[in-house]
Amino acid sequence: MREHEQYSDFESEFDHADDLRWRAKKAKPRRDADVEPGRRGRLTEEAKDRLAQMRDDAVAADVPPDGDRWSTWGDADQGPKPHPSWLVTDLSAVDRELGIVKTGKEADVHLLERAMPGTGRACLLAAKRYRSNDHRLFHRDAGYLEGRRMRRSREMRAMTNRSAFGRNLIAERWAVAEFAALATLWQLGAPVPYPVQRDGTELLLEFVGTDGAAAPRLAQLRPEPDELAGLWRQLVDALGVMASAGLAHGDLSAFNLMVHDGRLVVIDLPQVVDLVANPRGPEFLERDVRNVAGWFTARGLAPESAEPREVTEMLLDIAGLR
Fold first, then answer.
1. Same domain, 100 and 243
2. 56 plus 78 within the same structural domain
3. pLDDT for residue 192
4. Which of 177, 210, 243 is the last residue of a domain?
5. What is the pTM of this model?
6. CA 101 to chain CA mean position, Å
7. Catalytic residue among 95, 251, 274, 288
8. Which of 95, 141, 268, 274 is catalytic?
9. In 245-307, which residue ranges form alpha helices assigned H by DSSP?
């Protein structure tokens, strides 16, 4: 079994029934002196304020003095070894939020610094956080989820019905799929950001940019002819590595490619498609190629150098599907 197929056995961290049982077990008897019942058993506004303040105080008590949270490295699924030398993996490191890099349909990307206090050791990371309660996350997921099956029928029903529980499951499955694909592709030498860790629906990735400024998307650039041809060759090579792993991007465009110091970087892979398990795999691959080839030829690349059908057939050969 390939590594990127492991998400099909993903066991949910959002077990609603267990959560309800845990809450009931932890609940303490309510005392009239602490909480005053309102109409129909509801809390009074004063009681709500007191409870909110207690929650805020509990969270604040565990915040490091020079950051927003302690490193979550020890609690997360970690990226492939060997870990890059630039990565701070100390459990006593501190994470500090530096702002939003990009907002998207399914997730927001934040700039995060992970540092060891008092040592000068630090690294910048891109924190990609999926919005599991946003219905837009699921407006086009049915085709991508083919071939990704879960063993629990209750979870499948929740995902099909798009309940709150089901939306959480889908968001986490997208995060799991992207993290697994990035790990596989990184190990194969594909030009993707190093996947640092996954914790729930948050991915921490290598930050692609300089001094906190993200590298531009390909769509923002107007390359000269020689640079354009070089970027196309890099892209075809990257798609070849993906095809060798049996994968297609699934939503490839000039907006899902970054250019950093002349190097093309493939990003945004939550909808990654298994070319074998997904019956529509070749269709998604052909669409990816057609989208990017159209962008390159519209900016001056010779059409014979980026003929979508020829490139698609070559990639299917690499994937062993021809």
1. no
2. no
3. 98
4. 210
5. 0.76
6. 14
7. 251
8. 268
9. 281-298
